[in-house]
Amino acid sequence: MKRVEDLLAELEYSILSGDIEDTEITDIVMDNRKLVDGCLFVCISGANHDGHDFAEEAAQKGARVLVTEKDVKLSGDLPVAVVRVGSTRKALAYISAAYFDHPADRLNTIGVTGTKGKTTTTYLIKHMLENAGHKVGLIGTIETIIGEKHIPSLNTTPESLTLQRYFYEMTEAGIDSVVMEVSSQALMLHRTDGFIFDIGVFTNISPDHIGANEHKDFEDYLHCKSLLFSQCGIGIVNGDDEHTPEIIKEATCKIERIGLEDGNDIKAVGTELVNGGSYLGVRFKTEGLISGSFKCDMPGSFTVYNALCAIAVCRHYDVSEEMMNRALQSAKVKGRIEMIPVSPDYTLMIDYAHNAMALESLLTTLKEYEPGRLVTVFGCGGNRARDRRFDMGEVSGRLSDLSIITSDNPRFEEPEAILDDIETGIKKTGGEYVRIIDRKEAIAYAIGNAKPGDVIILAGKGHEDYQEIKGVKHPMDERVLIDEVVKSLS
Q1: Strands (DSSP E) along 313-463, which ranges?
Q2: Which SS3 state, helix, strand or coil, does residue 374 take?
Q3: pLDDT exceeds 60 at position 384
Q4: Which of 89, 311, 409, 470 is the most buried (most CB within 10 A)?
């Protein structure tokens, strides 16, 4: 039981009806399907539903307090207090933090935002801190990790009530640090309000998440990303990104810049590509706030930026160069340029690149390694914009030596029709391709016809372990498919 006055202590509010003096509540609820007697119900205005429409139901089912941002209609003489705030989403964050006794105050909190690189950067930070003896929780696109518990994610950054519950569970599990991805949507919708990050990280930004129910334009997207730096003690930013000045324009924290160009506080120099046969990586040195030599078993210049972000964070926690290197050479991120060792003669990897921008960035990076052939196995999701298929086909046709187009998540569309659209894009380039609808057969074709020096990319599925067909998610993990194919060919 928590006193309502304590939960509202950091908020400006007015009491429209009823009385909250000495009132205690049993739980916080924002979903009318989860109402319980004695709860505090926060009326959230969402994209598809408005919690204010369920105020009467909440009161009838025993809610003691309704937190609103607009008028609600209640019938009869119901024993419920109505509290008005400026934003119920913001109020939910502060109320949740207070309900769980401000667990973020007992954790080292690190938030990572940006268009690309968030997931990889968070895992690198986690592994570096763990090598230094910290117990680290993680919250992100793929999963939430609390000790031995792995919880699949619905959102990159969960709602504030869930987020604060996770923080609380981490403190109870003896975890001392948490690293998390912070989406622009989360910042826009106040999911991370109610506490201050010790360190905030900005990886990069490019147009994304613009449209209905997301951001109205790039300026809005950029502004929302920048909000992190009014909510942290130290800001670590990509000093080479052209939009960084706008990102930190209204920052209230100390700023440290990382990058490959002059003027950064930590600068990578002498970058070398490493081709280990079954894996690709990079080697580089750093100058500035930390001086050292590093090697990462992931490819490309974007890997250098991700690694620099992690290095810049972990130097604040006295992580040694040796511990950092150990993490950089052992950390694996499921579905993010994930190397699958199959043969010393060629490289096979899985990556989540599922749009033209991500695929072009990946393939351009891999071409720098001068592979014998670049072979890309990919498809496109059904019930999504057809333009994505044309664009991905064109990118792969232009940059791959061989495209193997196959099924991804067809959803309620016919796989053949999706492949037809991809093929339209490839034909613009004259690139070589084959069509194999069954994804396992497509992977078998790529492996069975691999040549020394090839780099084979399975793109689009990444961390997903299912294939969605006609509304049903069928189990399908590419790692399992690869294992089955290799065994069948041996």
Answers
A1: 338-339, 347-351, 374-378, 402-405, 433-435, 455-459
A2: strand
A3: yes
A4: 311
Measure the CA–CA gap between 435 and 405, rounded to whole angstroms: 5
Identity at 429, one-letter amino acid code = T
The pLDDT score that the predictor gives to residue 448 is: 97
Q: Residue 331: pLDDT band by 50, 70, 90 thresholds?
A: confident
Domains for the chain: give ranges and CATH numbers: 2-99 (3.40.1390.10), 103-330 (3.40.1190.10), 338-489 (3.90.190.20)
Q: How far is CA 311 from the centre of its chain?
A: 19
pLDDT of residue 207 exceeding 70: no
Give 282's strand partners. Answer: 273, 296
Spatial contact of 349 and 337, defined as CB atoms under 8 Å apart: yes
What stretches of 88-158 show up as alpha helix (H) in DSSP? Answer: 88-99, 118-131
**DSSP string covering 456-488:** EEEES-TT--EEEETTEEEE--HHHHHHHHHHH
Alpha carbon of 225 to those of 111, 177, 220, 239, 313: distances in Å? 11, 22, 9, 15, 18
pTM: 0.92
Q: What is the pLDDT of residues 92-126, one digit of tens each?
A: 999 999 999 999 999 999 999 998 899 999 999 99
Contacts of 489 (CB under 8 A, 6+ apart): 444, 447, 448
**DSSP structure class, residue 408:** S
**Alpha carbon distance 300, 355 (integer Å):** 19
Report how far residue 80's alpha carbon sits from residue 479's, in angstroms, rounded to the nearest whole number. 54
Measure CA 379 to chain center.
22
CA dist 103 and 267 (Å) reads: 35
